[in-house]
Amino acid sequence: MAEQAALGNGPQFLRQEGIAAPLMMDNVDTDIISPIGKPPNPGATPETRAFEPIRFFADGREKPDFILNQEGFRRASIILAGKNFGTGSSRSVAVSRPLDGGINVVIAESFGPLFYDNSVRQGLLAVPLEGEKIERIAVWTRANRGQTILVDLQRQVIEVPGLDTFEFRVEPRVREKLLGGYTVREELGRLEAEIDVFEQDYRQDWPWIYK
Amino acid sequence: MKRREFIKTGIGAGVGCGFVPVQSLFAQQAAGKTLFDKIWEAHEISFLGGVTSVLHVDRMMLPDSGPSSIRRLLQAGEAIRNPELVWAVADHQVSTSPERYTNRSLNLGSVADEFPEMKEQLAAMGIQAFGIDDPEQGIQHVVGPETGLTLPGMLMVAGDSHTCTHGALGCVSWGGETAQNVLLTGTVIRERARNLRVNYVGALGPWVRGKDMILHTIGTLGADAGNRCAVEYAGPLVRSLSVEGRMTICNLSIEMGAATGMVAPDDTTFEYVASREFAPRGALWDQALAYWRGLPTDDDAALYRDETIDMTDVEPQVTWGISPEHVIGVSDRIPSPDDAPFEKRDAWRRALEYTRLTPGDTIADTPVDEVFIGSCAESRIEDLRAAAEVVRGRRVAPNVLAWAIAGSQPVKRQAEAEGLDRIFRDAGFDWREPGCSKCYGSNGELVAQGKRSVSNSNRNYVGRQGIDAITHLVSTPMAAAAAIAGRIVDVRKLMAGEIA
């Protein structure tokens, strides 16, 4: 299949073939994913700044129990997680630092609302999937270290070789935005006439809103 | 006036950032509407399929970088779509040191200079910008309601995650929006949240307040309970709370993983809003009020989920772990991972390893290094009064570093007029200037590495207040009590003279 060129100026996501790392925790918060207001960990590189507090000790040594520090998972591009992944703040680095480290997909039971919005904006694919299916993929990926799975947004499927093909669904707007590579402004630009009409009425009807 | 009729729009099975159980589809077919649905539909410009819509924004609240963001856009030849709906305040990048006004380099970047430089130009466009020299400056989620820039019925957006605080006035508010997108389009694209209502019943015991209500709720329902939901806090206990107490509850909605939190507007709300600087007046007030009175959730509105929390016998709450759901009463013992629900055992083990606590020990008497009173959760005048009542005539324990920060300049002026600053200072607290500070380590204001903090803020995540720092979330008077005792204590016992 020929690669589809981006139609807009935003980040495009078509599919990701890569290693899936099981970070099977609930409530992975944005202060774990990307701390702010603190000096960077001495061990971190631009590629390993995501997950600093659970990736490194304060002195910069790697924490061996962190999945991305383990052989077979260092080059993972897909994270498997539990509920409420990315709960917490709106910081854009909660998405950009994983992206800088090559993490392009997070498959989780549910997402923190602001991480989710950031992921749509920045082109990281947040895939909601039932916990039992994520657990099956996690078991598979632990048993098949270094082997890749495929996350295809066009067909909305996750293909795990020798295990199963899992269907998922994202919002139609998210799929269209990421496949087309549109920016939010480009998405809204197409609706400009509609917005204009709405706002004219709105200003008439709701004068107390306007300071 | 067509928008006022709350036209019903059927919505299909969406997916988005979590799963939609089947009952929610039926819920959407009910006749009545919720507070959230009414406001959503009044702002809906275009439906994009699934559960996604384009919405009109009534207020865009900009952070410290607001003036420079606007300047950049104007220099690039762009037009701000609805400038009179925009306002900005410096909070995240400001120092809370009293020297920040004279030594302006204490403030991060050029935040101290950009506001005065841009003030007139922005004012001409209808944009209020409050820098450190302005009498309105403070933490944005204190300033918005306090100035009347936040009003019931609005769709209010910002970058900061705790924008959900403003829902206490009966508006829809959320963070996570990009300044540029909203400034240029006046709109946002969002997925419609489901309706979760939390009804509070019973009675609040002495020294139990809004903070304890929401911490207990998150502990009971879980930190993910709000995923894809707009939470409406309801019931007699919420009705009896002041708007400030309601703000504390709504503030932690994001800690429940919710899209937003709200309280239906009532006479308490209208009385609070009426005298505010930017609130509508005269005929506009009457028009707004008539609309606001129609906002509360209809009796026959169906909900995705309806929960009841009985506050009877609930004690002042303290977190013991690294998620706001890791919370117990102050008389309780540290739980054991062996007693956790199976899927939470690992998380509890990791949490206890991080917080260096032993299962079976009481949470009370845990020694404390630092105490932080401030933040958008609780730094309003009622919070400071409650803390001052605890602190009055007492001394901060030796070796405890205690800070008290009013949430805004008006709160600070009011506190000083009441002599609260003297009470804090005489006890050994640092009385500082309004800003975000140690809630997340803003401007280098961090809890020292590995130290234990008792904080009236909203997040106890790993490293949130400083590297390897441990945070115990509590209410403001509980934080004050910990500062005095030098350890976590029950504020009720301290006030009864049962603790030396």
Offer a concise description of the structure.
The complex is a heterodimer of chains A (211) and B (500). Chain A has 211 residues and is α/β, with parallel strands linked by helices. Chain A has helices at 30-33, 52-55, 93-100, 113-122, 131-143, 172-180, 184-189, 192-205; strands at residues 15-18, 20-22, 78-80, 105-108, 125-128, 149-152, 157-160, 164-167.
Characterise the protein shown here.
The complex is a heterodimer of chains A (211) and B (500). By secondary structure, chain A is an alpha/beta fold. Chain A has two domains: 15-180, Aconitase, domain 4, CATH 3.20.19; 186-211, no CATH class. Chain A has eight helices and eight strands; from the N terminus they run E-E-H-H-E-H-E-H-E-H-E-E-E-H-H-H. Chain A has helices spanning 30-33, 52-55, 93-100, 113-122, 131-143, 172-180, 184-189, 192-205, and strands at residues 15-18, 20-22, 78-80, 105-108, 125-128, 149-152, 157-160, 164-167. Chain A has a four-stranded antiparallel beta sheet with strand order 1-6-7-8, with helices on one face. Chain A has a four-stranded parallel beta sheet with strand order 2-3-4-5. Chain B folds into three domains: 25-56 and 166-310, Aconitase, domain 3 (2-Layer Sandwich), CATH 3.30.499; 59-138, no CATH class; 318-495, 2-Layer Sandwich (Aconitase, domain 3). In chain B, the strands form five sheets. Chain B has a five-stranded parallel beta sheet with strand order 5-4-3-6-7, sandwiched between helices. In chain B, strands 17-16-15-18-19 form a five-stranded parallel beta sheet. Chain B has a four-stranded parallel beta sheet with strand order 11-10-9-12. Classes of the chains: A alpha/beta (211), B alpha/beta (500). Chains A and B meet through helix 1, helix 2, helix 4, helix 6 and helix 7 of A and strand 2, helix 6, strand 8, helix 11 and helix 12 of B.
